[in-house]
Amino acid sequence: MASSPNDTLVVETTDAICRITLNRPKSLNAINPDMARALKQVAAEIKADKAVRVAVIQGAGDHFMAGGDIKGFKALLDGNPGAAGIRAHFDEMLTIVHGFIADFRQMPKPVLGSVQGAVAGAGFSLMLACDLRIASNGARFLMAYGNIGATADGGSTYLLPRIVGSAKAMELYLASQPLGAESALEMGLVTQLCDKEALAQHALETAMRLAQGATVAYGRVKELFLNSWSSSVEDQLEAETQAFVDISLTRDLQEGVKAFTEKRPPWFQGL
Questions:
Q1: DSSP 57
Q2: 105-127 pLDDT per residue, tens
Q3: CATH number for the 9-211 domain, one of 3.40.50.2300, 3.40.50.720, 2.40.110.10, 3.90.226.10?
Q4: Is 150 helix (H, G, I), strand (E, B) or coil?
Q5: Is residue 93 a contact partner of residue 41, using CB atoms and an 8 Å limit?
């Protein structure tokens, strides 16, 4: 069962749902090295745990994640580590961050982002890595990187153009201005909106519905979508064929067909 190595995350697993709560509310859940390492460990554990059928990422307090820990960046620079020290620090941190982003994107199960308040910088990128993104009506979205003279990271240069198109992605980076929830929904940055008071319950109900679904098939379709960007039509059709053949041997598909013919809800077990 997944667990956090430190208190920057709260990890709870019940009913095949693993809820990951970013737990630095006094810092708007800004990611620091401890949180990055914790997310990498937890993502790897969830990815490998077949008992977990859905992951939910949420923030403690009023915000999802306000980006990187800028105070920590300043302390690093004030310490005059030199070019080699700066390079080594950010190379290490981004290797960790990109490791958990890759794990969330590649794990064969749905990942649901439940976001509110500030969704900025690394938080924006982490949200994009989720398969479904539910936001409160008051959420505000910001790439933020350009405001401190930084390039974008966390997979956002891969994911954002694929969601909103290259021109709009570049506009969002260059503008570096907060975007409201309704605009985010129209662009496809988020998939659902709800009132802040209802967000946690709505996210949990969505996760429960997914966890009771055909999660083996969900995982294969997620893989097909991800790989489609680098596949030819012929290769993608062959991948679809292989996936369907493999799924046809699962208990879930056999149960789904049987339930359909018997006119009853299916009981999927992720097998």
A1: E
A2: 999 999 999 999 999 999 999 99
A3: 3.90.226.10
A4: coil
A5: no
- Which segments within the chain are labelled E, that is strand? 9-14, 17-22, 54-59, 111-115, 118-120, 132-136, 140-142, 179-180, 192-194
pLDDT tens digits, residue range 2-54?
888 899 999 999 999 999 999 999 999 999 999 999 999 999 999 999 999 99
Angle 251-53-139 from CA coordinates, rounded to 5°: 145
Domain ranges of the chain: 9-211, 215-261
| Paired tokens of 244 | 């369907």
| Residues contacting 245, CB < 8 A, separation 6+ | none
For residue 173, count CB atoms less than 10 angstroms from its CB and return exposed for 0-12, middle for 13-18, buried for 19 or more. middle
